[in-house]
Every structure is written in C-alpha cells, then in structure tokens.
Amino acid sequence: MEFTDEQIHRYSRHIILPEVGGKGQKKLLQAKVLIVGAGGLGCPVGYYLAAAGVGTIGIVDNDTIELSNLQRQIAHSTERIGMPKADSAKMTFEALNPDVMVHAVKERLNKDMIMDLIKDYDIVVDGSDNFPTRYLVNDACVMAGKPLVSGAILRFEGQVTTIIPREGHCYRCLFEEPPPPGLVPSCQEAGVLGALPGVIGALQAMEVLKLILGVGQPLKNQLLIYNALETNFRKVKVPKNPDCPVCSDHPRITELQDYEAEYCQMRF
Amino acid sequence: MEEIKPDRSINIKGLICPYTFVKSKLAIEEMEVGQVLEIILDYPEASRSIPKSMEDHGHRVLKVEKINETDWVILIRKERE
Ligand SMILES: [Zn+2]
C-alpha cells in the first residue's frame, strides 16, 4: 500500500522514528487488536491505538454508559448516557482516525463465543473489571496462542502484564484461581481516582504497539505495579509456573469455564 | 570526480520540516541497500537537517550542494534496512 498525503501527515511523528518508519506504520495499519471492556482501561487503550493507526480494533462490552462512568471513561460523553459503551467507543475512535475500523461487540464474553471472537485478532487487551472475565480471557488466549496485555486498577494502584503464551507466564502462573468473592473489595471499597485508568491504559496501549512493531521488551514474565500516591513503579518477576493449571505442559484446565461467582458488580 | 548516478530522485520543493524528512525517509525505505537517493529541496533548514537525520539513521551522505538561488541537491546512499 502507498500512504496518502493525509496519512503521511497524520503519522509523520511515527515515520520519523527509526524504530517505526513507514514499514512500522504499515504494520500498525494492518494490525487487529481486540479490547475487552470499553470502560476505564478500554477507553484510553482504544483511543491511543486508534490514534496510532491500528487498522482494526474490536471492542467488547455489553454495558451502557452511566453518569458515574464519566469520571474516568474518557471515550464516552454526557450526551451519550444510556448508549451502549461499545457503540460510543466506536464513534469516538473512528472520529479520531478514519483509517481505523472498529467492531463493536455488544455481548458479555462467555466460554462459548470467546474462541471464535479472538481468532480474528492478532493481540488481545484485557481491560475488564471482573475476575470471571479476566480468567476466561487468560485461558482463551493461552489456548489460542494469542498475546494478551492485561491491566487492572483499584483505588490508587494499577498493574500491567504482557502474556505471550508458551514463551512466558500467564495470569494463572501469577494467581492460580480467582479469589473467593469475600476477598474481593466490596462496592464501598472499590473506588478509583480518575486518571489512574489513563496511566494503566496508556501503558497497555504502549505494550500493544511494541508487540505489533516488534521493538523493545514486552512485560513478559513481569508484573508492573504503579502506586499513584507514592508515584512509583515496581516490576515484580513472574516466572512461568511449570505446574500452571492452564499454560504448563500438563494442564488441568483444557476447557474454558465461566465463573459465576457473585462479585461486586461495580464497573471499572 | 566521478559523477554519481542516483537510482531514484524525489522533488520535495515546497515542503517544510518534518515532511521533508518524512518523504525522504519513506523513499529510502523502499530502496535497496547500496542504492542512491537524490533529493531536490528548497527549504533551507532541511538542507542541514536531512543529511544529519540520514546519518543518524545509519545512511551515508554523498553530496549536499546548492544548485541555484533556491534549491539544494542531496545524495544519500542507503547503508542499512
Ligand atoms: Zn500459566
């Protein structure tokens, strides 16, 4: 493909980077990334990927926009309250960059459709707000061999990790099973300062761009932890667990499962 | 002195930075290592910045010459992918 004059201007700050260039920009335009969740994390992830010219973005979310989302979910707006988040995200991202095709998937991920959905994408980003989805996405990506950039936020702290199935760790190497519902913060405890998902989402977007371009080192076998109050980043090593229930050579989990535990339904 | 024959020539007169370099970089990316790109430009700043940026990217500047009142010719040999 040849760049149009508009594309040369739009992507000029990428093209002049030796690590990107026209070739890297073409990789971005050809890339397909699936984002799970159009909430606090999914909004900035999708926003930056769209701005960067990632050509195909899928966004999965079955919620509608509520007023209480707008303190941090920056792809939506006051006048769109009540609209499905996936539709709103599609409108915002495509308005930012007409080179990008956004597929809005207005369903809750479940074990019966996730494999069919992720097969069309190169990379998956988890910006979900609940443990059932987090484990389902992890297991599906391990089984399908899809790189997964996972993020999580709570109050003033966030985490990012990049899972490259078979090469590195997976989420279950880190935490084998979802925590029991009683240990998950209750609704009253589950606040989040508005810019936190912006920080973590931007880190996730950066991991995705690096994977597409093949530059730098992904957060493989590592968990990056950001503490906003102390303004520090810590990297914790996460070795691949040789007995991991899903990504080891002798997995116990060979079929996807939907966890139906009663977690706090508050949405991040 | 032996005349160097460019393998490709681009005219970027009228363009300013950073598009002068963006266009030059896109052109050289499509060429083979060892080939020579000729760039004709009229933006004075770019007559200095393009050679420097091309060297930073690992290519060789063979010539920078002001050919008339307004224009420069730059020859760059692609040294690496
Ligand atoms: Zn594992």
What Rg of chain A is obtained from the alpha carbons, in whole angstroms? Answer: 18 Å
Largest interface: A-B, 11 and 12 residues
Assign the CATH topology of chain B.
Translation Initiation Factor IF3
Count of spatially separate domains of chain A: 1
Please, what is the CATH homologous superfamily of chain A?
Answer: NAD(P)-binding Rossmann-like Domain
**Given the C-alpha coordinates, what overall shape of chain A results?**
globular
Q: CA-to-CA gap between the ends of chain B?
A: 28 Å
Taking pLDDT < 50 over at least 5 consecutive residues as the criterion, the unreliable ranges of chain A are none
The main pleated sheet of chain B reads as: 4 strands, mixed
Assembly state of the chains shown: heterodimer
Spatial strand order of the main sheet of chain B:
1-2-4-3
The CATH topology of chain A comes to: Rossmann fold
Protein model, in words:
The complex is a heterodimer of chains A (268) and B (81). With 268 residues, chain A is α/β, with parallel strands linked by helices. Chain A has a single domain, classed as 3-Layer(aba) Sandwich (Rossmann fold). Chain A has nine helices and eight strands. Chain A has helices spanning 5-10, 12-15, 21-30, 42-52, 85-96, 114-118, 131-144, 171-174, 196-213; strands at 32-36, 56-60, 101-105, 123-126, 148-154, 157-163, 222-227, 232-237. Chain A has an eight-stranded mixed sheet with strand order 3-2-1-4-5-6-7-8, with helices on both faces. In chain A, helix 4 packs parallel to helix 5 and helix 4 packs across helix 9. The termini of chain A are far apart. The model of chain A has no long low-confidence stretch (mean pLDDT 93). Chain B contains two helices and four strands; from the N terminus they run E-H-E-H-E-E. Chain B has helices at residues 19-29, 44-56, and strands spanning 8-11, 36-41, 60-66, 72-77. In chain B, strand 3 (60-66) and strand 4 (72-77) form a beta hairpin. Chain B has a four-stranded mixed sheet with strand order 1-2-4-3, covered by helices on one side. Chain B is α+β, with helices and mostly antiparallel strands and 81 residues long. Chain B has a single domain (8-77), classed as Translation Initiation Factor IF3, CATH 3.30.110. In chain B, helix 1 (19-29) crosses helix 2. Chain B is globular and about 30 Å long. Helices cover 30% and strands 28% of the residues of chain B. The interface between A and B is small, with 11 and 12 residues. The site of zinc ion has 8 residues of chain A, from helix 8.
